[in-house]
């Protein structure tokens, strides 16, 4: 359902005629979604009277119970409000205590056509029917049970093909997995190699664990094999970190030919590779992961935080073999015993039931729409994934632009947040998933566009 499908709100109940479609979610949820989107798009106006439940049921050709259930859920969410004998009305937006829009955190957008609240309630109810509460609230096996590892292998099959569950470890988030990998494959004082622009969690983990991060030069296809060889020989490194698909922050995807060159050089230099791959499922025609091309050289990391929800705190690691998995879990036990049983069980149930795949499709559809919106608003090429990398005009410095945007109530991440050493790229990362509504994202993008259109000198001093 799109705005183009909605009828002018001033035609009374006619605006509600397109509230339902033939397929998709249960009809009461479709009704709630219609109200939610109608308010966001301006099709339903706050203060406008809502049709009576009986008249709406007749208009839509559904039973009264369906409409009543939808209205109850819409009232619970604050979308409509009852005013006694006067009837039911579209509610005014709830007052916001903060005007800040945080586009600096890379999280997946809310999935299209999916009622996450209802999924959580139903999922937890089914979970309690299938499991005893005491089993969900006690200690579990570190690295996941045999069933969990099979489910992880099932989730990764569209990406990696068939994976032996004995190589899979279930981890409490990607950052914990990354720290455990560093402990597994390096000693204190050793060097970890990465690209110059890198996910900020890596240098933080490297520094806190007493290792050093050194960078390897890149070109348009990603890390250069010759530069990798030179850096490996110079620093005696044994571990390489790569995020080769829709790289964070640059969104660059390394071509297959370059992947094979890097794997060949890594083998000659005796380098083990961490492949951090949270965005592969968002990339159209993505090359095969490094772990598919050389599984014995690569530890493959995939988190649900970027594809489903950060709240699940579940990540999957595929190790080269069962022995390296044991070493990894020994390292992880030094700071994290297990993934949280309740949310981990919910994640496994969603994967087994097919719900996770439905959420993923909804997230991908919403991410595609938000990428299109960002491209139109900012005049940039349409991309993929849940963030964009915007090269800033020469009259702006990325840090100054981020500061000016913060004054406007918008948080973005300047290139300096990702740079290891001197950084020549003048850019900002704009994350597209943090706002629940497209309208809020659109407004923030327009404000950024207005800032970009003006010389920074206009924002050099703010007087309040």
Automatic annotation (TrEMBL):
Residues 25-93 form the HTH gntR-type domain. This is PLP-dependent aminotransferase family protein. Pfam families: Aminotran_1_2, GntR. The keyword Transcription regulation applies. GO terms for molecular function: transaminase activity. SMART domains: HTH_GNTR (SM00345). In the C-terminal section; belongs to the class-I pyridoxal-phosphate-dependent aminotransferase family. The keyword Acetylation does not apply. CDD domains: AAT_like (cd00609), WHTH_GntR (cd07377). Keywords: Aminotransferase, DNA-binding, Pyridoxal phosphate, Transcription, Transcription regulation, Transferase. Gene3D superfamilies: Type I PLP-dependent aspartate aminotransferase-like (Major domain), Winged helix-like DNA-binding domain superfamily/Winged helix DNA-binding domain. InterPro entries: Aminotransferase_I/II_large, HTH_trans_reg/aminotransferase, PyrdxlP-dep_Trfase, PyrdxlP-dep_Trfase_major, Tscrpt_reg_HTH_GntR, WH-like_DNA-bd_sf, WH_DNA-bd_sf.
């Amino acid at each position: 359902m799109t705005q183009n499908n909605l009828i002018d709100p001033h035609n009374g109940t006619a605006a509600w005629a397109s509230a339902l479609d033939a397929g998709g979610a249960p009809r009461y949820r479709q009704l709630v979604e219609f109200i939610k989107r109608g308010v966001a798009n301006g099709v339903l106006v706050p203060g406008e009277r809502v049709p009576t439940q009986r008249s709406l049921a007749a208009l839509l050709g559904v039973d009264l119970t369906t409409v009543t259930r939808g209205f109850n859920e819409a009232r619970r969410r604050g979308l409509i409000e009852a005013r006694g004998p006067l009837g039911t009305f579209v509610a005014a937006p709830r007052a916001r205590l903060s005007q800040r829009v945080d586009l600096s955190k890379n999280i997946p957008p809310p999935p299209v056509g999916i009622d996450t609240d209802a999924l959580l309630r139903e999922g937890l109810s089914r979970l309690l029917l299938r499991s005893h509460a005491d089993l969900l609230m006690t200690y579990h096996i570190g690295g996941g049970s045999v069933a969990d590892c099979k489910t992880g292998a099932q989730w990764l099959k569209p990406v990696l093909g068939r994976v032996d569950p004995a190589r899979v470890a279930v981890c409490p988030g990607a950052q914990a997995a990354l720290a455990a990998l560093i402990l597994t494959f390096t000693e204190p004082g050793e060097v970890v190699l990465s690209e110059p622009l890198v996910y900020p969690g890596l240098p933080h983990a490297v520094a806190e664990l007493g290792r050093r991060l050194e960078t390897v030069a890149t070109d348009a296809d990603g890390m250069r094999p010759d530069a990798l060889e030179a850096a490996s020989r110079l620093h005696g490194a044994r571990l390489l970190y790569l995020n080769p698909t829709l790289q964070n922050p640059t969104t660059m995807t390394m071509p297959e030919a370059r992947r094979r060159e890097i794997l060949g050089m890594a083998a000659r230099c005796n380098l083990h590779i961490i492949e951090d791959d949270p965005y592969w499922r968002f990339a159209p025609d993505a090359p095969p992961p490094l772990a598919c091309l050389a599984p014995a050289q690569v530890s493959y990391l995939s988190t649900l935080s970027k594809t489903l929800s950060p709240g699940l705190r579940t990540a999957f690691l595929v190790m080269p073999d069962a022995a390296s998995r044991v070493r990894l879990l020994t390292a992880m036990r030094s700071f994290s015993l297990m993934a949280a049983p309740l949310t981990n069980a919910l994640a496994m149930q969603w994967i087994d039931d097919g719900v996770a795949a439905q959420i993923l499709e909804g997230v991908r559809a919403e991410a595609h729409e938000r990428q299109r919106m960002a491209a139109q608003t900012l005049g940039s090429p349409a991309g993929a994934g849940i963030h964009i990398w915007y090269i800033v005009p020469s009259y702006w410095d990325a840090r100054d632009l981020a500061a000016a945007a913060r004054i406007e109530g918008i948080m973005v991440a300047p290139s300096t947040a990702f740079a290891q050493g001197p950084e020549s790229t003048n850019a900002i990362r704009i994350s597209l998933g943090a706002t629940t509504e497209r309208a809020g994202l659109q407004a923030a993008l327009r404000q950024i566009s207005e800032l970009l259109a003006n010389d920074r000198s206009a924002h050099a001093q703010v007087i309040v």
